[in-house]
Amino acid sequence: MQYLIGLILILNTTFSFDQKILKDIHLKRSLKQEGEQYQFTVLDKDEKGVRSYKKDRFYYWYKAQHVIATQGASSGDLLHGGFEAYHDNKQLSKKGAFSKGLKSGEWLYWRQDGTLITAEHWKKGRLKGTETNYDKEGNVFQTTRHKRLSYKRENADSIVIGKKLSGSETILLKDSLGKITRIEKKKDGVLHGKAKDLENGKVVAKTSYKNGQPVIKKETENKATEEEKTTDTEKRRQWNIPGKKKTEEGEKSDRRKEKVKQEEVQKEKKEKPQKTAGKAPNKSNSQKKN
To answer: What is the dihedral of CA 283, 285, 289, 290, to 10 degrees?
Structure first.
């Protein structure tokens, strides 16, 4: 009896294992796309799919012998499990994994000669951790540290600190010795904000940019405004246009006042001799009395 029970258990385990193998084979896909051979598996329809799609992430899905990436949605069998792509010379091109359509874990990319291009890490469809880039000789030439809302990219020539939501970047340019020589700010790939030139760690020049164009300083703008005002005033004087300066009526009023002053001065001059003439007889009379 014990032998019979053991035999039944063995047969049941073998049957379950065979079913799993058949299921895995059923979920495997292979196709040629964009000059590469793809091998991957899709999500079993018996498993739960995506409850709510994230609008900021790309979902990879399979339909009609094509792998398609769509932001925030899918319309076919979601890729799930290991993924491999090969060049025409049978050399590996890409290797990674998917979890319900989203990239997950470590992803590696190779050139046709087998040298690495990039090694990156994904979590639920987002780059996370360190991304490493390699040159044709297989040496590291750039690293990028990804966070949820920001990243920091560094190589021999520069350091770039970026914000993912706003699209803004702060770029620190370096010389051959690794010293910072210039600090720039960009938005959506163009200069936007203050740029500083440095020598021995000290700022020697500043330039402001807006949408890729240099911004004129306020002092220059004020001078231009003053020149415009002066020109405008001269035109008003020529054409007697009322403005902040004296108008034609004001000038007439000034002339009248000046005329009145002159008349008063002349009147005073006439009155002085008459007064002197009136006092002389009195002086002679007093002499006679004496």
So the answer is: 30
* Element (DSSP H or E) covering residue 149: none
Amino acid of residue 73: A
Q: Is 92 helix (H, G, I), strand (E, B) or coil?
A: strand
Q: Quick check: 81 and 87 in contact, CB under 8 A?
A: no
pLDDT above 50 for 143:
yes
In whole angstroms, what is the distance from residue 14 CA to residue 4 CA? 15
φ, ψ of residue 42 in degrees (nearest 5): -115, 165
Number of alpha helices (DSSP H) and beta strands (DSSP E) in the chain: 3, 19
- Map tokens 């004001």 to a residue: 250
**Encoded amino acid at 101, one letter:** G
Of residues 59 and 219, more confidence is placed in 59
The first and second tokens of residue 43, run together, are 């999500």
Query: Looking at residue 257, what is its pLDDT?
Result: 76
User: Cα–Cα distances in Å, from 19 out to 23, 25, 26, 28, 228?
Assistant: 6, 10, 10, 14, 88
CB neighbour list of residue 237: distance below 8 Å, 6 or more residues apart? 245
Question: 151-165 burial string, b = 16+ CB within 10 Å, else e?
Answer: bebeeeeeebebeee
Name the pLDDT band for 230 (thresholds 50, 70, 90).
Answer: low
What is the rounded CA–CA span in Å between residue 73 and residue 55? Answer: 8
- 24 pLDDT tier (thresholds 50, 70, 90): low
Least Cα distance to 80 among 24, 133, 144 occurs for 24
